[in-house]
Each structure stands twice: as C-alpha cells, then as structure tokens.
Amino acid sequence: MPRPEDSPWAISVMQVASRPGQSEVIDSKFPAPSGIGDNIIGVDEGDELTLKGSMSSIVDGLILSGTITAPVHAECTRCLKPISRDWDVNVTVFFPYESKADSAGTKNGKTGKDEDADIVAGEEESEDMYPLSADGNFADVEALLRDALVEALPLQPLCREDCLGLCSQCGFDMNDDPDHHHDVTDGRFDVLAQLKAQLEQEQHKA
Ligand SMILES: [Zn+2]
Ligand SMILES: [Zn+2]
C-alpha cells in the first residue's frame, strides 16, 4: 500500500495539527491532477499548480484556505482564439480529525459514531470536506485541487470581455479591425438604387 506521504499532493500537517489554534503558511507547487476539463477548456495533467494560503487548526480539524493558481488552456467561444493564462481560484476546505473522532466513538460505545456523523453534517454545510490520511499526519490535496478547478472553469470562456468575435460572412476576426464590413454587391439592390434615383429625379421635376 502506498504511504500517504508519497503522494505528490501530500501536505504534512503534523506540526499544525499538534494543537488547536495554530496556523501554517502554505506556498507549494503541485502537478495538476488528471480530469480537469477537456480539450476545449481545462488544465493539462501535470502542469504546475500553485497553492498559497494557510492551514489552521481548530479543535476538530484543519481548515485550509488559500488560492490555487492554474494555467488554464481554453478557446474563446466568440473568436476561437486559444486562451492561455493563469486563473486564480479561491478555496476554503475542512479536514476533520476523523481518526480521533472514531477512537472517541469506540470508547463511548456504538452510538458514538452516529453522533459524530450528525455533528459533522450539521456544522459544515457550506464547506467542502476532505479526509486526512489515516494517521492524521497528511492532508492530500489532489481531490480538492481537481474539484475546485473543475467547478471554477467558465462555461463560455472569452479571450476578453468585449471580444468582437468573427465576421458572420467571412470569418474575419473582428478584433483585428472593428470597422470590417462587406459592401453589398447583390444585384437586386442595384435595381432598387436605380429606382430610388429615378424617383428622386421625378420629385425634383414636380
Ligand atoms: Zn475572442
Ligand atoms: Zn467579413
């Protein structure tokens, strides 16, 4: 069985978890886990992610709060140009001390576990929760990196907010020349122009 510390996404929490009220700065780089997005928009597996923030200990677990910076590749949905830039995603997640809760539960008999489950479910509705390693010494951030980035990927990425897109007639990139347009050379309009000129002449005479 692989040891938790062998995971490239393991963060040692031995120090900060030793007692409540401590905080540790996190500034680490991780390879992007697989499964973030697709060819159109996503993060390539193995690309470098940065996680900056802090890990703080409270009585029943650890709170990780920080910002993930990821090199997202995407395609502008209007002009189809490739976009590649870093995206920042803020995360706040909770790592409960499950192993300690379990051992407390067994001491109190078999109802202990149910109570713990109730407490956890009631307290942490809005926060994402992830398990610590079985020995409680490591937080593995693989799943949280993936979840946070997948959730944050925009459905309709744009190269810039006011991207002008492509000309509907020839596919010209309108961002290169906002004045780009097509002169109407349709024969039917020539007839109309002639008619208009004719009418104007007659009006002059009248
Ligand atoms: Zn665009
Ligand atoms: Zn055009």
Automatic annotation (TrEMBL):
Top-level taxon: Bacteria
Protein name: Putative metal-binding, possibly nucleic acid-binding protein
InterPro entries in alphabetical order: YceD
Pfam families, per the entry: YceD (PF02620)
